[in-house]
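Exercise: predict the fold of this chain.
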Amino acid sequence: MPVATEKQINEVEQAANHVWHNYYKDIFSPEQIEYMLKKYQSKDALKRQMSEGYIYYMLLADEKLAGYMCLLPQSDYVYLARLYIKAEYRRQGLARRAIGYMDTLVSDPELGFTHLKKIRLRVERENSFAINVYEHLGFYKVRAEDTDIGGGFSCKDYIMERRLEKV
């Protein structure tokens, strides 16, 4: 379900806080988590990103918010900027369904994305769980990249890609 309303933006912000504090506590310091949430996942950051072309989707399970994803179409690929699933909904196939939904989106000529050939994402190199999930879904590592994100913090990511499957 696309994120469009103020209420949905608030729900995504709350989900981000839930996921990040639960999931990243063993990867990032509490200070870096707070910094990244404010910079990338606060209500203001979400609104700014949406005005810049990022498309947020709520992932639902039993009509409840189970997670969210965010896409940014580029010239020949779609950037999967976010794919976060709440702990209680992991290992239920939501990531696979989200990626499958992306395949469906880029196959719809009315949306204007049929020229896109692949999905690209960044994943923290210490995030072995997510790396394994992405590899299981057909992604492969393209390169390692270190990025200064400001505030004295950095991210050490793998850039991963997967060919889009036209349906």
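Check your answer against the key: The chain has a mean pLDDT of 94.
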